[in-house]
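Contributing new records

If you add data, match the layout below exactly. Sequence lines come first and carry their own label; structure lines follow with theirs. Keep one chain per record. Anything else will be rejected by the validation script.
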Amino acid sequence: MIIVHENRGPEKGYSGAVTDGGERGGTRVSVVIPNWNGGEMLTEVLRGLEAQEFDSFEAIVVDDGSTDGSLEHARQKCRPFRAVELERNVGFAAACNAGAEAARGELRAHRSSRTGAKGYARASIGSAPERAGLTMAEPS
């Protein structure tokens, strides 16, 4: 069974939901983050997304049967994001596919929860935003 839901998370300290589509009014990029027991690294990745000047994206965390509480921890510490919860660990590729199915963006980027936030955006998304007429900045 796959459960897809919107995380409402803490509103304090954040200007708006990661899933709000930004100033342009529509979600252009879906960032899919497969997570299996990612611990604090998942929170780091989401906070890296929060620091982006590029704001026309949604974050989708695909919890791949985690048992470490990383999804719940991220819900409490990060801005709202969409989540896909898988009942059991199905592996990275299947988790990416589940996230892609839930995605609403015109473009998709996949990002592991295990590699930290710095330098991710340019490496994962490449020149796709520019080709779509968008600009993006790396987190500091």
